[in-house]
Amino acid sequence: MSDPFYAAGICPGPQMFGPSARRGFLKMGLAGFTSLSLPGLLRLRATAAEPPAASSGKTAVIMVWKPGGCSHIDTYDPKPEASAEYRGPFGLIDTKIPGMQFTELLPMQAAIADKFTVLRSMRQNAAGHPAGSMQMLSGDPDTRDKPKPRLPDWMSVTNYLRSLEGRGKNPIPSYVGINPPLEYNGPAYLGDAYSPFTVNGDPNSPGFTVPNIGLTDANEVRRLGRRSSLRQNLDTLERAFDRQGELEALDQFEQQAMTLLTNPATKQAFDLSLEDDRTRDRYGRNTWGQQLLMARRLVEAGVDVLTTSLNGPLCGRVQNWDDHAVNHHVFDGLRFRAAAYDQAVSALIEDIYERGLDKRVLVVVTGEFGRTPKINYAASTGAGNASAPAGTQQPGRDHWPRAFSNIWAGGGIQTGGFIGATDKRGEDSIERICSAEDFLATIYHHLGIDSAKTLIRDFNGRPTPIVDRGRPIPELIGKG
Question: Contact at 8 Å (CB) between 278 and 293?
């Protein structure tokens, strides 16, 4: 039976806006009083739990997500001495780091291996896509697949904490997702206000645009000005009800919304046509390459958190990395997507260093788990890119959370080499084992957030740690 990589369709209700019923009433009231949703969202970012301590640093993270899970054995952790039913068909290539080899699928990354570190000993204990993603992105230890997250993901938490510090005059949103991983994560009890400013579509398409930013039509700007009459509408509310003076802050958030909509700097930040042709070619003239180029542009413009998924047609028939035999011929699938993946990721990492962003910006490339070391065979469920006609027996690898790899670049870390190890068949992490909580604590540390001490109130008003267990991985901590 196929294990489809389905979308969960997370649609939080009003109860997800926060632990306070009074605040929830005000937030629902705002939605009813205006058709301009962005000011309401910005306002919600200032009214959640008690403010925990957060750094005022300007560090940023780009997370490149491989939904479905990438085979570690066929990429960063090859096992040439294992038997044929484990090692796969790919040859090995040397990297720039003596003694470290990748498979032949990653020549461009191998050539710049001194600019990133491979963590080969990741482990979590959830074998399903939803639970595995929630472990990696929010630290939820539950191994059961759930339709929506119980805990907010690290991206939403960071957005919330940074919002408490204020954004100054930067019109660019703090958290942006370019075709982001939204299937199995989200802001949970923080509320939808802390979700990303989402950019969907193919940035490589000639007609690609990001709607509702940097508007230049004078009539449209005037129309928006007429619509943004929140103060007049809200004057009808009983001001005595607003004991904490929340309504008086509306001017500030309405102005932020209008700035995002009308400031030319916002349009420029998203505009890939401002990049020279050589740079665009370097990343690859395809969806993934242009997504990662836009990611670099946006963190350079001041975005704190940038997430993007490498999915869609470039992955093969089922449009993700979920290489069960029923979905893809696993090795054809890896070959099909390898060139675009290798080029885009290597270009991003090199660009981060060349543009002097390597101390401020941390790049993390990962999925929710690896794939089974032992190859299995099953009948394809349909023909397409990287999949034989239905009924054809083809090789696959299934879900494997016990051992997998991810790569880290920038962030001021010492790069070049690998951390940890798996056993001779790639079945278990055996050296310097790192958990999902360690993964999260490391990202938070780069962002200046002490995950061991930061608490946020949940639906019931209980102070909840943003990472229950886990410590920053010492080798992935920047040296300043």
Answer: no
Distance of alpha carbon 241 from alpha carbon 236, whole angstroms: 12
Q: Which of 40-54, 133-147, 296-310, 314-328 has the lowest average pLDDT?
A: 40-54
Q: Give per-residue burial for 165-192: e unless 16+ CB within 10 Å, then b.
A: eebeebbbbbbbbbbbbbbbbbbbbbbb
Across all residues in the chain, what is the average pLDDT? 84
Whether the CB-CB separation of 45 and 193 falls below 8 Å is answered with yes
Residue owning tokens 């740079």? 279
Residue 387: partners with Cβ closer than 8 Å, 6 or more residues away? 316, 317, 318, 327, 328, 329, 332, 333, 380, 381, 394
pLDDT digits (tens, 9 = 90+) for 220-275: 555 545 544 444 444 444 444 444 444 444 444 555 566 666 777 788 899 999 99
Q: Check: pTM over 0.70? Answer yes or no.
A: yes
Query: d(Cα 59, Cα 339) in Å, to the nearest integer?
Result: 30
Split at pLDDT 50, 70, 90, the class of 33 is very low
CA 200, CA 38: separation in Å to the nearest integer? Answer: 17
Contact, 309 vs 65, CB < 8 A? yes
Provide CATH code, domain 54-212+266-476.
3.40.720.10
CA nearest neighbour of 377 among 324, 334, 315, 318: 324
Domain segments of the chain as ranges: 24-53+215-262, 54-212+266-476
| CA–CA gap between residue 440 and residue 472 (Å, rounded) | 8
The owner of tokens 């949703």 is: 37
Report long-range pairs for 48-51 (Cβ below 8 Å, ≥24 apart): 48/18, 48/160, 48/190, 48/191, 48/193, 48/194, 48/456, 48/457, 49/18, 49/19, 49/190, 49/456, 49/457, 50/456, 50/457, 50/463, 51/164
CA dist 477 and 480 (Å) reads 9
